[in-house]
Amino acid sequence: MTLELASNQGQAPAEKGLEHSPLAIRGLTVTYGQKPAVFSVDMTVEPGKMTAIIGPNGAGKSTTLKAALGIIKPVSGQVQVFGKPLEDQRARIAYVPQRASVDWDFPTRVIDVVLMGLYRELGLLGRLRNRHKARAMECLNRVGMHDFSDRQIGQLSGGQQQRVFLARALAQEADLYLLDEPFAGVDAATEKAIINVLKSLRKSGKTVVVVHHDLATVPEYFDNVFLINTRKVAEGSVATTFTAETLQAAYGGRLATAQVDQLTLAAG
Ligand code: ADP
Ligand code: MG
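^ thats the input. predicted complex w/ adenosine-5'-diphosphate below
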């Protein structure tokens, strides 16, 4: 079923424009043990758009992002970033990992977390200058965390931490932003702050890819969707691809039909 969908609806909007795609993945297969976590996945991200990666728990969403970043090594597959091999393009990608895994017992100030976003530019021994600190403060301002720069990161709420990690990504001044469930477990004010920042990135021509768990906000937040359940299910615009059919294919029995109807009605 999913294979059929992939061949009917899974074609990326512009296969011919592959060299211009901010992120093009071909034949990606990743295994942790015996079973593949991601199997033979192709993905072509459209430039200047916001794309949601959606699919059930354990579908391989985070794994796909990590492979796109070179954090995990695939069994097979290629990743191209702006038409070039990933290795040459890492500085153009900013990543906000899924929250919670990091233990902040070691005292680290908010401003220092944001400054980590500059290490590629600075190098290990580069001198931090006032202009770097000013830029970090500017990024904190954009996420509404300007007043927290001297606080310890471990003392902030989950939503506040998430905004700081977004500020770190902004400090990188990347062209492609990959975020893994940035809205999971955050307060409403943080969700609003984050979506506004992402929309302003899009407005300035940046490309944003978000692993997203809340199907209800997909039509409001995103231009494109990529549905996955170990294999790719479908990829395309929200209007054409966020449908009852593709959602059933990705989630199977895990979504009630009424719920699917409601969600896709919202997508128009
Ligand atoms: P998602 O982000 O869609 O919830 P993941 O990419 O995290 O899914 O995981 C995909 C599959 O790979 C799941 O079955 C998960 O249990 C497994 N998996 C993920 N990370 C690891 C790991 N480090 N070691 C072993 N299995 C893993
Ligand atoms: Mg995940």
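Strands lie at 23-31, 36-45, 50-54, 76-81, 84-85, 93-96, 176-180, 207-211, 224-229, 231-237.
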